[in-house]
Amino acid sequence: MGDRWHIEVDRTLCIGSMQCVHRAPGAFRLDSARQSHPVTPDTDAGEPVLQAAENCPVEAILITLAESGEPVFPQED
User: Fold this and answer.
1) Best CA proximity match to 63, nearest among 2, 4, 1, 6
2) DSSP state, 75?
3) pLDDT tens for residues 5-27?
4) Cβ contacts of 16-21, under 8 Å, gap ≥ 24
5) CA dihedral sign of residues 39, 43, 46, 47
6) What is the DSSP track for 19-35?
7) pTM above 0.85, yes or no
């Protein structure tokens, strides 16, 4: 069984660029204010979700391991 991730979007940072929706269409959606939300906050780990976070122009997407809370992205220094 693979890792489970918890996904959060910092709405104070999100600018609605839609990069997350383009890279992981099943994982993110925009609301009427053009702010991103995870479709399912706890999800199986997957490359499209990681690519969405890595390509967010304002780094508004946070991914942690669902069980431990350990950061996946962005990585702590």
Assistant:
1) 6
2) P
3) 999 999 999 999 999 999 999 99
4) 17/56, 17/57, 17/58, 19/52, 19/55, 19/56, 19/57, 20/52, 20/53, 20/55, 20/56, 20/61
5) positive
6) HHHHH-TTTEEE-TTS-
7) yes
